[in-house]
Amino acid sequence: MKKSNYIEFKIEGQEELSTKVKKCLSGVNSSEIVMDLTSMNILDAAKVMVLTSVYHSGKYPDGRIKCKLANDEKCNFINPFITKNLELV
Question: pTM higher than 0.90, yes or no?
Fold first, then answer.
């Protein structure tokens, strides 16, 4: 996977989550990206996935976002939030 297609999200500082997501996606010029959310708690990971899905689909309507989560428990919780362009890996 190209480095430009890979995003590792971490919650640091006081920056608003939506601002951080927009900033990270602004440097991605690919319809397919992989996001590593393993360091995030379950609620923040769900927020990032939904925000990323919305912002990325605006630029790439047929794009795909593959999300890495820390464990199956998180996957089961987040599964109902999955949109057509999100995939858990």
Answer: no
